[in-house]
Amino acid sequence: SPTAFTLTRTLPADATAAALRADVADGLTHDPKRLPPKWFYDAHGSELFEEITRLPEYYPTRAEREILNSHATGIARATGARTLIELGSGSSEKTRLLLSALGAPLSYLPVDVSESALTGAAEALIADHPGLTVHALVADFQHGLALPDTPGPRLVAFLGGTIGNLLPAERAAFLASVRSLLSPGDALLLGTDVVKDEATLVAAYDDAQGVTAAFNKNVLSVIDRELGADFDPADFDHVALWDPEQEWIEMRLRARRELTVKIPALDLTVDFAEGEELRTEISAKFRQEGIRAELAEAGFELRHWWTDSAGRFALSLAFP
Ligand code: AVJ
Q1: Helix/strand/coil (H, E, C) string of 231-266?
Q2: Which of 120, 126, 186, 195 has the fewest Cβ atoms within 10 angstroms?
């Protein structure tokens, strides 16, 4: 049988470090201060996120798993996919449901910025799915992808609601770039959280145990370690709020007092006023008609919209 696992780095080894420096330099000198959410996910941040997915308040992971349990077979039938491309695959846990439904022979292309997440998940998947060929790609899916030549039809899966972390213009560019990877007969499976009452949404991002607060503050520890900064996470409060106009959750870190932070690797000093807030994440929530319009704008037709029984989360299946 052919080699079951290959890994391709499309990012130079130092790309991540350079991107972090650029994002921190830009974001902490911007008014208001902001950072992109991708920097939450070092090893500790990824563990905290796994813990979040098990919190009583954080429903998206369970709701999406319920939808995949009910509809993986339907997705396999509707797409007939022979290649599954998973963007931001992380631990690939929900992927198993899709791999089993699609059956062998199948090419699986997990795409993630974390090489350790890719290699760790692939070994276990290959052991459990005979006939699976894994081509892991270390890449940033927001910046253009080159895919190996594997059999069609292709199915691109972007699960978990992570598309909600992109600003509307970034979303449009991202969907257009996915469309450019696909041909007629291929498909896109997109997970999105759904607009709902404010109390439920805010609780999901401000849990009683404080796990989300620790996850949010972890970005400061990442900057301390990687850039030699002297942030003290205890100087900040976790803030989660619902923006009803934009229909997104914002996570912020609010300075508890006036303070100055040194970031030696950037030769930068950053002042915070007491109460000043740093935006660390947006997590947009969606409605079926909005998704349909954004997909259409990128050249996709929405053909299936599935929700969990409580209507909290949605999976969209769209075709070029
Ligand atoms: C992994 C991006 C889907 O936005 O809900 C969880 C990240 N942030 N709690 C989300 C997250 C705070 C999560 N995504």
Answers
A1: CCHHHEEEEEEEECCCCEEEEEEEECCCEEEEEHHH
A2: 120
| Structure-token pair, residue 102 | 């699609």
Q: Is 164 in the pocket of ligand 1 (CB under 6 A)?
A: yes
Instruction: Calculate the CA dihedral of residues 3, 81, 181, 185 and round it to 10 degrees.
Output: 140
Atom 9 of ligand 1: nearest residue by CA position: 205
Question: Alpha-carbon distance 220 to 224, whole Å?
Answer: 6
Does the ipTM surpass 0.90?
Answer: yes
From 243, 274, 271, select the one nearest 258 (Cα to Cα).
274
Integer Cα distance of 40 and 29 in angstroms: 19
Please state the pTM of the whole predicted model. 0.96
Strand pairing of 132-138 and 5-9? parallel
* Residue of the CA atom closest to atom 12 of ligand 1: 205
**CB of 61 closer than 6 angstroms to any ligand 1 atom:** no
Tokens 């594997």 label which residue? 150
CA distance 217 to 233: 6
Strand order in the sheet with 277-284: 236-243, 248-255, 277-284
Radius of gyration, alpha carbons of the chain: 20
pLDDT tens for 257-279 read 999 999 999 999 999 999 999 99
